[in-house]
Amino acid sequence: MNEVYRPTYKVALIALVLGLLSLLLVNSAVWHKEQLWRYGERLVLELAPVDPRSLMQGDYMALDFTVARQLRQALRENGIWQSNLQGWLLVTLQSHGPASYQGYRLTNIESNMTGQQRLIPFKVRKGRVRIASNAWFFEEGQAKHFSAARFGEFRLSPEGELLLIGLLDAKLQPL
């Protein structure tokens, strides 16, 4: 009964398969985001003023968007503002400049939309409307450079997934 437990080839094989499966899942998610970055439709949203630093997390810019503030006001005026609310923000794309607020929908129904209108998913969390990302992280010491940001540049998938890819200055040039 002095037998020592030794992992068998079955345990090693299971560990190898689980490791490969984990790598496959991670790489699949990365590939999906890269495809959205490359082929997603360009969407620009105007930034609303916010605090540019966090001492606990390093340098970053907390993001808020003008359309999110307009949505928050509309939800409150219509008496449906609540935590954990989810829905779709309706915007109209502009050929030069940021998308403009057109309204909201609580379901993803694309009826009565013009060719330039898009639905963007939103969530209400902790008293704020969240659209895609609520922060842009940057290297320490770059706060002055990113303080010139006036717009967020996104890529939008046909399914409504939104990916923040950069910040733009007042002339819509990348920072």
At a glance:
With 175 residues, this protein is of the alpha+beta class.
Instruction: Briefly note the structural class of the backbone.
Output: alpha+beta
Task: Give me the number of helical elements.
Answer: 3
Number of domains: 1
**C-alpha geometry:** extended
Rg of Cα set: 22 Å
The span between the termini is: 69 Å
Mean of pLDDT? 85
Order of helices and strands: HEEEEHEEEEEHEE
Kindly report the spatial arrangement of strands forming the biggest sheet: 4-1-10-11
Instruction: Give the biggest sheet.
Output: 4 strands, antiparallel
Which regions contain 5 or more consecutive residues with pLDDT less than 50? none
* Record field, number of beta strands: 11
Question: How would you explain this protein's 3D organization?
Answer:
By secondary structure, the chain is of the alpha+beta class. The protein has one domain. About 25% of the residues lie in helices and about 35% in strands. The protein contains three helices and eleven strands. The protein has helices at about 10-40, 65-75, 145; strands spanning about 40-50, 55, 60, 65, 85-90, 100-105, 115-125, 130, 135, 150-155, 160-170. The strands form three sheets. Strands 4-1-10-11 form a four-stranded antiparallel beta sheet. A hairpin with a 7-residue loop joins strand 5 (about 85-90) and strand 6. The relative contact order is 0.19. The model has no long low-confidence stretch (mean pLDDT about 85). This is GDYXXLXY domain-containing protein. InterPro entries: GDYXXLXY. It comes from Shewanella yunxiaonensis. It holds the Pfam family GDYXXLXY.
